[in-house]
Task: structure prediction
Amino acid sequence: MTKADAILLLQRYYAAFNAGDRETFFSLLTEDVVHDINQGGSEKGVAVFRSFIDRMDRSYREQIEDIVIMADESGTRAAAEFMVRGEYLATDDGLPEAAGQTYLLPAGAFFTLRDGRVARVTMYYNLQEWLRQVGT
Result:
């Protein structure tokens, strides 16, 4: 992969996410993808990541905006900085009660890319800022 290929892959990744096209989204992941959850643990595998996204889709409606994607020359590592515009739809386990609160939150992700797919995604955002915005 080249740097340009890496950037195109992540543009497709975020476009599929924003479009709600989960099949395309998951097709861009390696079978052994590692998902490092913000302020949480790591999970491995597409099936586990799919379960995570299904849970997120039940509780949140999110769009990724103002995306800036960066990649190294080898096309194996990349990062993205963006804004998450969301609505908290249904109460998520261990979090405040949902009542349709909206939020706009800066976030970032780091990626390892392999064989034209995402092999690792590490998410970062400020949970305390999200909690403030949803009214806790």
